Amino acid sequence: MTIREKAALAEKAARAAGDMLRHCGSFKVKRKSENDFVTEMDFKSESLIRDILLGACPEDQFFGEETGGAAKACGRWIVDPIDGTANFMRGETEYSISIAYEHDGELVIGCVFCPVFDEVFLAVRGEGATCNGQPIHVSGTNNSRDALVHMGFGHRNPALLRRTLAVFPALISAVSDVRRSGSAAYDLCCVASGRCEAFVERGLSLYDYAAGYVILTEAGGRMTGWEDGEDAIATGNLIASNGLVHGDLERLLRG
Ligand code: IPD
Predict the structure, then answer these.
(1) Domain ranges of the chain
(2) Which residues surround ligand 1 with Cβ inside 6 Å?
């Protein structure tokens, strides 16, 4: 199967899971740890996506938020079956399904589906990014004073939360405004499609940002770590932006 065909498969799996989530009725919720929940639907969504992807590509490996799976492999799907579980379980609108494909260690496909908005963000490495089939690009705003910044706070980890809150006053004073959506995959798509200029959060997991990273970079955006020289893909500490306000944000967040 070609990478293009795999991207179409990712979209098919994400849409199938999204349709199930939109029409699922009531479900059980469990607390994984402080401020961290998982619903019965996270497992059902992951299992449906896994069956569709591995049914068509049995040679591939699978790594999902709820069931884990293979570390690096020649071909590996990286899946967050509901990114924004806390929103989903309360009936909030901002949650997404995130599916990435990694080939020989490189992230080459990103697909993020937001069921409530009926929006599929899709990118294949080297081919650009789209939203519902239309090309998308990061915004042309180059003045960080005018930047709208989406932000997560690492709220489940007290040390991360403290470090993030320490830079918050300087950040919100220097930009136009700050938003918290509750779905990192969706946040990255907002930067990719020019709805905001940047998204910053520490302590994310690969399945939260793998797909969004491909979409963002194919839409002309940039992603680095919070520390100088830090590899954001490896650590999950992300500064993601339209590229034009990136330097200003790095200076602000690195203090
Ligand atoms: C969470 C969301 C949220 C971010 C958390 C993530 P989940 O993913 O992306 O925006 O702040 O750090 O864990 O747990 O809903 O899949």
Answers:
(1) 3-135, 144-254
(2) 65, 80, 83-85, 152, 182-184, 201, 204, 208
